[in-house]
């Protein structure tokens, strides 16, 4: 059984569960592949285009396979004021990727997100869900370096 | 004094500041004193934060690290490292909704019960549904999500419906960037929100209780799930003769889903686009069932109303706005965090007294996020009240309050908000979809130094048209940041377009970077830090290479590097314009 089918097994094929199902698939696979869309459509007996429509509407769903370390740069108001665009620039310079991209080794991917809700620690990023706050360039580069070391090992 | 318990703030903000490591360390090192993880008491600037309970009351410690030195000072109840809660702040605040936030174990139902939890529900269970609605009406509670619709009235619409299924939804899709009141409340005291929903179900006859929570709030989701299990176990979802069911749904990252009809579509598993009203959700909502939607903070207020009575609740606040309001205070303030103030305090009180911003250092606040507007410093005597904020061109909003310091550019701030709404527009209404994009393009042109007076006139003309031509709250409020900055900071727009200057020196295309050599100690840190090697051995920044990343400005120990007006910096041979 494919991992997609396995994630769908526990979900009742009621249309209201479509988003939940896609979240389960993404949780398992890291993104929503074309095959996953077809399989989800079969599960709910709806057309693939309807599933694709929902996937493309919500920012959470990724159509590109993410890296081992998913970096989210918070660009909420507080972080923006405290220099989120600089943070994004530093990461892009260091890793050579822009928002929505994954690097060639598949180690890092970068996305810009609306708000991580830790505004008092702005600017913040999160890597695989762990939040790092009060960033400056030096601290950020160290975090990236530590992950690169950890990821290569 | 004897230490009875140690409480570590481990809400999202605490964790981001390193609370997890502190919890692990304390649990390893301390054996004889119970260590519990609590939510957030609102003093986010002081995280990681520890409350030490003793037989003679509590002591707080700020910025605690997983170090022996810090552990010893806490176990010895030393003075060093204590959090001093400033009287200016405590005098302005009125902690009611957040009374238990950060003070009790986030996941313990027993602690919630021991502190007056579910007393409101108990009272409600002995009342007639119509009397509960009456009580809420009497309290004057208005929707805390921003719109300010009277909660009691909304509930009376749903209660009046005869239907087999009635739905009550808790809107926990806190999407405004800069807002984190709901997250904090759900993480810290999930039972309070759920108790409010159960009371709502009693009052309206709702059968299914949905919580639509942002997926970006994993800790809130975890704590709500735990709390719902506890409710089921204790049978608190049995409301007299009937049983209600909770359903926790995770959003998928679409700001527009905070709008009620869009949220209903999303709950049905569809694209979250809004639709025409009427029919209102109370007539036809989730799968056609009568549905009412209230915000997290609104539900968080309900148990208090039942416990103390609607009349007592209404004794706090102004004529048209009752009770307290939570504000997420961020931006250029000394003490960012979560504040709870009674309706009727002034904006200045929040910014200067609670937030600790220095007078004269702030030029405006943005209230209500991307849907709201800015209020300039000379209008800071405005009071927090749904109607008076509206008259200033801002809105109460959900409670995001961003303080904008003198060195920020208001045009850039407006551009930022439009970038957000243009990205989040669902695309259904033409004026919102294309109009916000056109506004964004003009703002980019102006902040890029290429704007003209016609562009400013274009913005002033298009804004009201987008408001008129959009179906839902997103489009109807999207131009507000531009309209309000134009109203109060027109001179900054003019400086960009007429003089091609950014007065705040924030817009990259309108500023240069310069090292002031008279104070420079030639330590070389800037040269080492510059990612594009724009600084020469002689400590001169080549602005033709410089990307305006601010790294050197940040790293300079003597603060001798600053932004200067465009054209006054050095431009090397390698290009220059």
Detailed description of the structure:
- The complex is a heterodimer of chains A (153) and B (577).
- Chain A is 48% helix and 13% strand.
- Chain A contains 7 helices and 5 strands; from the N terminus they run ααααβααββββα.
- The model of chain A has no long low-confidence stretch (mean pLDDT 90).
- Chain B contains 24 helices and 17 strands.
- Chain B has 5 domains: 3-85, Glutaredoxin (3-Layer(aba) Sandwich), CATH 3.40.30; 109-313, NADH-ubiquinone oxidoreductase 51kDa subunit (Rossmann fold); 324-405, Ubiquitin-like (UB roll), CATH 3.10.20.600; 410-497, Up-down Bundle (de novo design (two linked rop proteins)); 511-565, Alpha-Beta Plaits.
- Chains A and B meet through helix 2, helix 4, helix 5 and helix 6 of A and helix 1, strand 11, strand 15, helix 17 and helix 24 of B.
């Amino acid at each position: 059984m494919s991992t997609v089918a396995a994630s769908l097994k526990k979900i009742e094929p009621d249309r209201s569960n479509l988003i939940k199902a896609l979240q389960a698939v993404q949780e398992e696979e890291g993104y929503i592949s074309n095959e996953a869309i077809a399989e989800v459509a079969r599960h709910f007996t709806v057309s693939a285009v309807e599933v694709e429509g929902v996937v493309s509407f919500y920012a959470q769903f990724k159509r590109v396979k993410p890296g081992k370390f998913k970096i989210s740069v918070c660009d909420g108001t507080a972080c923006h004021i405290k220099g989120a665009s600089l943070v994004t620039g530093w990461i892009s310079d260091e890793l050579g990727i822009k928002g929505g991209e994954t690097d060639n080794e598949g180690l890092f991917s970068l996305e810009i997100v609306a708000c991580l809700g830790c505004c008092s620690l702005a600017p913040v990023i999160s890597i695989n869900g762990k939040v790092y706050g009060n960033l400056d360039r030096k601290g950020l580069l160290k975090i990236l370096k530590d992950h690169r070391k950890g990821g290569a090992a | 004094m004897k230490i009875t318990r140690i409480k570590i703030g481990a809400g999202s903000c605490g964790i981001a500041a390193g609370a997890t490591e502190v919890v692990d360390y304390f649990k390893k090192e301390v054996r004889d004193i119970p260590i519990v993880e609590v939510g957030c008491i609102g003093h986010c600037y002081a995280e990681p934060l520890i409350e030490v309970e003793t037989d003679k009351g509590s002591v707080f410690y700020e910025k605690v690290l997983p170090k022996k030195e810090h552990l010893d000072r806490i176990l010895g109840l030393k003075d060093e490292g204590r959090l001093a809660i400033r009287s200016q702040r405590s005098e302005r605040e009125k902690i009611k909704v957040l009374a238990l936030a950060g003070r009790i174990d986030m996941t313990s139902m027993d602690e919630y019960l021991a502190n007056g939890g579910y007393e409101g529900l108990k009272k409600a269970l002995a009342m007639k549904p119509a009397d509960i609605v009456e009580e809420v009406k009497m309290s004057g509670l208005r929707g805390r999500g921003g719109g300010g619709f009277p909660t009691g009235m909304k509930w009376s619409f749903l209660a009046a419906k005869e239907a087999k299924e009635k739905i009550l939804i808790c809107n926990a899709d806190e999407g405004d960037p800069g807002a984190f009141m709901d997250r904090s409340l759900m993480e810290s005291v999930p039972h309070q929100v759920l108790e409010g929903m159960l009371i709502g179900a009693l009052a309206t006859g709702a059968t299914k209780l949905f919580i639509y929570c942002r997926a970006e709030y994993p800790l809130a989701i975890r704590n709500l799930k735990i709390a719902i299990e506890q409710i089921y176990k204790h049978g608190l979802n049995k409301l007299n003769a009937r049983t209600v069911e909770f359903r926790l749904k995770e959003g998928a990252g679409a700001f527009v889903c905070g709008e009620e009809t869009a949220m209903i579509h999303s709950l049905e598993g569809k694209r979250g686009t809004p639709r025409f009203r009427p029919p209102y959700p109370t007539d036809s909502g989730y799968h056609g069932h009568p549905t009412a939607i209230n915000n997290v903070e609104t539900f968080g207020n309900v148990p208090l109303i039942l416990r103390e009575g609607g009349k007592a609740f209404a004794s706090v606040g102004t004529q048209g706005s009752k009770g307290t309001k939570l504000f997420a205070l961020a931006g250029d303030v000394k003490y960012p965090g979560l504040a709870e103030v009674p309706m009727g305090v002034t904006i200045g009180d929040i910014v200067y007294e609670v937030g600790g911003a220095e007078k004269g250092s702030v030029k405006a606040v943005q209230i209500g996020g991307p849907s709201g507007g800015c209020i300039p410093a000379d209008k800071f005597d405005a009071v927090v009240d749904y109607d008076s904020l509206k008259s200033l061109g801002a809105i109460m909003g959900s409670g995001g309050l961003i303080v904008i310091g003198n060195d920020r550019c208001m045009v850039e701030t407006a551009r930022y908000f439009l970038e957000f709404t243009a990205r989040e527009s669902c695309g259904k209404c033409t004026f919102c979809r294309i109009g916000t994009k056109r506004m964004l393009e003009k703002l980019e042109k102006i902040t890029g130094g290429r704007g003209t007076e016609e562009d400013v006139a274009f913005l002033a003309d298009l804004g009201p048209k987008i408001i008129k031509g959009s179906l839902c709250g997103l489009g109807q409020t999207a131009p507000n940041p531009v309209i309000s900055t134009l109203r109060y900071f027109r001179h900054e727009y003019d400086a960009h377009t007429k003089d091609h200057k950014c007065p705040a020196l924030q817009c990259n295309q309108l500023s240069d970077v310069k090292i002031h050599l008279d104070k420079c100690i030639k330590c070389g840190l800037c040269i080492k830090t510059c990612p594009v090697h724009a600084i020469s051995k002689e400590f001169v920044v080549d602005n033709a290479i410089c990307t305006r990343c601010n790294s050197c400005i940040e790293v300079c120990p003597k603060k001798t590097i600053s932004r200067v007006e465009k054209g006054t910096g050095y431009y090397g041979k390698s290009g220059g314009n």
